[in-house]
Design goal:
The chain is α/β, with parallel strands linked by helices. The protein contains eleven helices and eight strands. It has an eight-stranded parallel beta barrel with strand order 1-2-3-4-5-6-7-8, surrounded by seven helices. α5 packs across α6. It is globular and about 65 Å long. The structure holds 3-methyl-2-oxobutanoic acid (KIV) and sodium ion. 3-methyl-2-oxobutanoic acid (KIV) binds next to β6.
Length: 266
């Protein structure tokens, strides 16, 4: 029993196999995802929104992410654990990026990190790769730039911006990234980038041609409700089933139905 490595993911991609990633922020769900066949788990800065309740991913810090990285690592034995570098933890330059990545590996126990951006982040990617840290890139919709992008529900990489994104992806591969996330771009661009790169593309709203896919687990499970981006597919409706379970519990307590004899000590 050993963990999946970035080499395993490259080998799977070289064989033409598709593989699935999911976000993960806590021990129990991490174990479930791994046993269900997810090869790599991302402790994403989306936890800032989905676990900690911030409006966007900008606020979450290294100190907040690291306990979640630890929890996911403790809850798994085989999955590759990728830790997100949050906003402000690497934009300061290669030295800052390395210090943050080292914390994710040494304190968190992650095996890789992810950061957002193309050519502007290359010096950071090179520094991490040189230090032996596997780096996943992230292009297209990059939520840490929410204020510059004017929102996070806009498709990226249409028209000429597509050529620029392809150049960014090639530059990330050249700099040594082991994979690149493509978020919210036209399917045709997802195909172009996937054809051009040797390293795996990990799509989230990037069409069916990517080598792998990632989704936010609360979206997949329907723990989030209401309007969602086009790429979200709800495979379950956890919000409803959890609501019903808790409602029944409250009723049974109120009506003195729970606890009964079977749930009491003699
Ligand atoms: O933080 C996150 O969950 C992510 C994925 C959506 C790719 O970056
Ligand atoms: Na993220």
């Amino acid at each position: 029993d050993r963990r999946v490595t970035v080499h395993d993911l490259q080998a799977a991609t070289d064989r033409g196999e598709r593989w699935a990633m999911l976000t993960s922020y806590d021990t129990l769900t991490a174990g479930i995802f791994e046993r269900a066949g997810v090869k790599a788990l991302l402790v994403g800065d989306t936890s800032g929104e989905l676990v900690l309740g911030y409006r966007d991913t900008v606020a979450v810090t290294m100190d907040q992410l690291i306990p979640m990285v630890q929890a996911v690592v403790r809850g798994t034995r085989r999955a590759l654990v990728v830790a997100d570098l949050p906003f402000g933890s690497y934009q300061g330059g290669p030295e800052q990026a390395l210090a943050s990545a080292v914390r994710h590996l040494k304190e968190g126990g992650a095996q890789a990190v992810k950061l957002e951006g193309g050519r502007p982040a290359l010096a950071q990617v090179r520094a991490l790769v040189d230090a032996g840290v596997p780096v996943m890139g992230h292009l297209g919709l990059t939520p840490q730039s929410v204020h510059a992008l004017g929102g996070t529900h806009r498709v990226q990489g249409r028209g000429d911006a597509g050529d620029s994104l392809l150049d960014d992806a090639l530059a990330l591969e050249q700099a040594g990234a082991f994979a690149v996330v493509l978020e919210a771009v036209p399917a045709e661009l997802g195909r172009r980038v996937s054809d051009a790169l040797r390293i795996p593309t990990v799509g989230i709203g990037a069409g069916p041609s990517c080598d792998a896919q990632i989704m936010v687990w609360q979206d997949l499970a329907g723990l989030t409700t209401g309007r969602a981006p086009r790429f979200v597919k709800r495979y379950a409706h956890l919000a409803q089933s959890l609501h019903a379970a808790v409602e029944q519990y409250v009723t049974e307590v109120t009506d003195a139905v729970y606890p009964d004899e079977t749930h009491s000590y003699t």
